[in-house]
Amino acid sequence: MNALSLAIFAVLALAVTASLQNVTVKGIAVCDKKRMHNVRVQLFDRDTLDPNDLLSEIHTNHNGEFELFGEEDERGWIEPFLRVSHNCHAKPNCARIGEYEVPRSAIGDVYDMTYLTLDIVVSGEKEQC
Ligand SMILES: *[C@@H]1O[C@H](CO)[C@@H](O)[C@H](O)[C@H]1NC(C)=O
């Protein structure tokens, strides 16, 4: 390798080096305009090749509030999303599982979802009975 190709190689290697990224996601789960406690909220990083990584998990408190922090080493951007499992308008003994994307602009920052209205059915929602 000559000096130029070595330099190019070094730049490319740097470009694909993983960097530690984080995100904080918070909000308040509501159902029928009431705050919903004990809702399971999980923060994942979507991986195209590997299974998604669970970064953090919490249950909403008595006021329906949740706040999650996650960080991960990733090449390019992390692709965080929330998975929320709840029984707001679910069939008896079933859970509704909805996923919510975290915008890229929130990476390295706080994503405040304010009210997470669980009455609303999100696309791709699943049911677990
Ligand atoms: C999260 O990432 C941002 C941007 O890289 C950084 O400034 C901040 O210190 C990180 N926060 C924590 C708690 O690691």
Automatic annotation (TrEMBL):
Manganese keyword on record? no
Keywords (A to Z) from UniProt: Secreted, Signal
Q: Where in the cell is it found?
A: Secreted
**Signal keyword on record:** yes
Main localisation: secreted
**Signal sequence interval, chain numbering:** 1-18
Q: What Gene Ontology cellular-component terms does the record carry?
A: cell surface; extracellular region
Q: Which InterPro entries does the entry mention?
A: Transthyretin-like, Transthyretin-like_sf
Which protein family is it in? Belongs to the nematode transthyretin-like family.
What name appears for this protein in its UniProt entry? Transthyretin-like family protein
Source organism per UniProt: Mesorhabditis belari
Q: What lineage does the source organism belong to?
A: Eukaryota, Metazoa, Ecdysozoa, Nematoda, Chromadorea
